[in-house]
Hints:
Blueprint lengths: L1 E8 L2 E9 H18 L12 H7 L2 H23 L9 E8 L3 E9 L13 E4 L6 H14 L2 E4 L9 E10 L2 E14 L9 H5 L7 E6 L10 E14 L5 H7 L5 H35 L6 H15 L5 H27 L6 H14 L4 H11 L2 H18 L3 E4 L7 H4 L12
Parallel strand pairs: 5-11
Antiparallel strand pairs: 1-2, 2-4, 3-4, 6-10, 7-8, 7-10, 9-10
Amino acid sequence: MKSAVESLSPTRVRISIDVDFKDLEPHVSTAYQSISERVVIPGFRKGKVPRQLIDQRVGRGTVLNEAINEALPVFYSEAAREHDVLVVGRPTIDIKELKDNEIVKFEVEVDVRPEIVLPDFSSIELTVDDVVVNDKDVDEQVESLRIRFGTLTTIEKDAASGDFVSIDLTARVDGKEVEGGTANSISYEVGSNSMVDKLDDAVLGLNAGESKVFETTLLGMQDGETGTVTVTVKSVKERELPALDDAFAKLASEFDTLAELKEDVAKRLERVKSLEQGAQARDKLVDKLVSELEIPVPDKMIEEEIHAHLEREGRLEDNEHRTEVERDTRQMFKQDFLLDEVVKTESVQVSEMELTEYMMRTASRYGMAPQDFANRLAQSGNINSMVSEVARAKALANILNRVSVVTESGKKVDLEALAPKKMTEPESDN
């Protein structure tokens, strides 16, 4: 097989491929066997029909056509690998010449990843926010801790915002109870707006034993459709917060005094905001590179993604929304191409330990056991996507360490010091 690549644009190439017939012969044999197993010819068992008879009854052209359809993707993939063509779209194949028992010539046009010239990262300077922890920040955190250690006391009063109520709910549509639409003894914070729409308005002012019917949109309903919900308050509870003193500090932490607790909270907030500096620097670097570098994106890829997006939303005719989706889609592809180029340039490899560490952190964010999360990834075929995520994050961290990052006040930020401690690889027995 001989092949050559011609660049048609920064994102599209033409691959010319010449295949000697001897290289096509295995595919021809497969085609004969496949046809032999499908055709019915008296006197011959399926799979045992001679080639000559297939040529007579089916035609040599049909055989060659089947063989070529099977073979061309194989030769095309081989040629793409040989010339390091990074394909990102579906190819268009055009057979230019076919001489039986001699040669097959065809051309493939396909979208490819653009070449991206990366800058000298050491010349880039990014500005991030200063780390500022004030008394208000500390007080808010301490108050949240105080709420966690609060107690609920049943009282005889009308439910008000901030109170906790125990309620029963019954949903109906057209006067008939909805299947699975009944719930009993639910604890609900009035004013949280965390359950059924309009529930807060219905509960406000109700005392224990009182009910109210309100109209709302139930789960699964279309816009404009409504049902009714009957809510019954069984009890009203008021949250009592502990006094803000040294006794509270001992109750809620390992510290003996409130001053020590607040000092620790301030240190923790400073650490969190320092980590936010790293995330801010990362996002700013990506935005800067995407906006300043020449990163062409295949128009066909963008159009296919836009169409699929709008079709899922049922908004194919919404031109204003189309413009928004096109902008976001183009930005997404540019970012993907950029990060993959950084991975390639930095020669990033992902170890099993790094993948495991990343999966454990991600599983924790979703509240899942690591093994359950891994099993779900494997079942959905998303393991490679996660490997890509890890590689991109690792490559981005590499180049971030070469970028100069300063705060608005001019203080240099040491991003390496903010990086999380890595798990150690197990030592080999060899």
